[in-house]
Task: structure prediction
Amino acid sequence: MPQAHPATTCLVEALDAIRAESDGRIAITLYPDSQLGSELSMQSQLRSGAIAFTLTSASSLQTLAPLAGIPGLAYAFPDYVPLWAALDGGPLSERIRGALSKFGLRAFRVVDNGFRDVVTGARPVEAVGDLQGLKIRVPPSPLLTSLFRALGAAPTTINLAETYAALQTRVADGMENSLPQIEATRVYEVQKYLARTGHSWDGLWILAHGRTWDALPDEARTLIGRHFDAAVERQRQAFVQMNTQGEARLRAKGLVVTSPDRAPFRAALERAGYYAEWKSRFGAEAWHALERYTGPLGV
Result:
């Protein structure tokens, strides 16, 4: 994440506290803003043990462990109450953590990266048809790629650190992300329109290399885990505050904001077979675990 993102700032505080409380015996260095490579590269580095921890999006983790992407299903969660209930414990959380553990990864609590909207430069998005043919930057997520393809757009995967230049040079016509991420990446400088589509939620899992984690003394794991948990709580609160104020700040920076009716977007996805496809791909049991928190979903 960029330096200004609340996930970064809250983790910096946690790592400082871990270093201080352990009298310097535990020193974890954080490299923000894709300094160690793309998300997929860092996931590979984590699995090999080249890095001990990473913060990576649920959407991009889907390429490794498909079930990790299920909370980002389009228009699944109406708000945070059922979302956190699903991810902080219970059958859906257990399934996701189990899927990650098969790749040697130890998952901590998930950090908020928000409900996602669309920002564009070519034209405003006020209806489904306005997305037709637009090249929309997405993370390396099959779920988001499928979503925008079903809505008639042309999704393209671009590393987050390269997105500003891609939008500036019109390699892409727009991007989709949360308001704090749109602010942190400063893409409002090279885009004109913000559409509050709220099409998907994405979070960031704090992950550890399993063997590195298991080799630590019990007291070290307890200390790190406690401060990571506290960082997640602070981050979620800070993110909600940033998100609440984000639209006004982005308007002040010159973005023209639209609030399209979301029902036609969900209906278009149903007609395109989006929900039927993903129920088949995730499996009936995982789908049922999701619907315990969301209610019936589009199939």
The chain has one domain: 6-294. The CA atoms of residues 5 and 181 lie 7 Å apart.
